[in-house]
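task queued by scheduler; priority normal; single chain, no ligands, no partner chains; default sampling; output format set to structure tokens
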Amino acid sequence: MSGRVEGLSEAPVELYRLNINTFEALDTLQTGKDGSFAYEVPVKEGDPEFIYLFYNGHKLASLLLKQGDKVQLLADTLGKCQIEGSEDSQLLCESEKHFADFASKMVQLNVAEDNAGMSKLFVDYYREDVKFVLSHAKSLVSVPVLYESLNEYSPVFGQLNDALIFRSVCDSLKEVYPDSRYVKALEKETQRREQNLSLQHSISSAQEADFPDLNLPDIYGNKVSLAGLGARMVLLHFWNPADPEQKMFNLDVLKPLYDSYHAAGLEIYAVGVDTDKAEWAATVKAQNMPWINVNDGLGAASTALQLYNVRSLPTTLLLGHGEVVGVTNEAGLRSELAKRLK
């Protein structure tokens, strides 16, 4: 790329590359007497780079470069920036200016205590952003727009349902740039948002049970609903199949309890918390556990743990009679079951 920064004569300017969410110094250039410079930015095929030009700590220009782009840049130290030779870079600069104007107007309305004006401006801007990212879903320029935020508590895309927009853009980008680190990071964020959306959906759409529903796959891949078991009491057990002590708990505690109380209305819904589903299934089969055994394969990232606020393993809860009772040992389990399954 080549360019000129008006007002800078034989001055140093810095080039930075974005690495997910941090800037990495790329190089320092010395402008000519007329503020001109030239630099060849290393860009791999199929892996565009976000490049930023700074002077004295102030950003002069933002670029989104593909391999082979021949960019000409004209900027000054007051925020003016013109770019030729890169459509993505032009879009990036336009989107950044649009957001800066929006943020400035929000500050003005906040100072004026115009809450109605702030709400309308935010909604209008959000709709424009949605239209922008969906219209440019196959360009990486959509990624920084998805992460726009007025402050750490006010992201533009802060609604749970925005997970659907993230997924749409992410899937489109994966088709074009499957190896991009920006797309891989977006996939992780998309999955996090989808888990939160699923968690909220589980809470809001829970059946008329006295507890939130789970709907997880068993060893055959068939999903089993916790709320749909129809038992008088459900023993919900979260456990780690890789822990020998927890495996023994199945045989030494749960099996005798199941044998004693299943006919009276007890069902056990055991959630294996492990990413190795093959090893978990092998343990279930080897121990010949007759109750409901499920595992979503997400390990510590499972929304089931969040839904029931599980902080450690094993965790055992008794569900029924309008209550969720936490118990920690065999004696406690037997005492609670004896009272409830007379």
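post-processing summary
- DSSP finds nine helices and 15 strands in the chain.
- The chain has three domains: 2-85, 95-203, 215-340.
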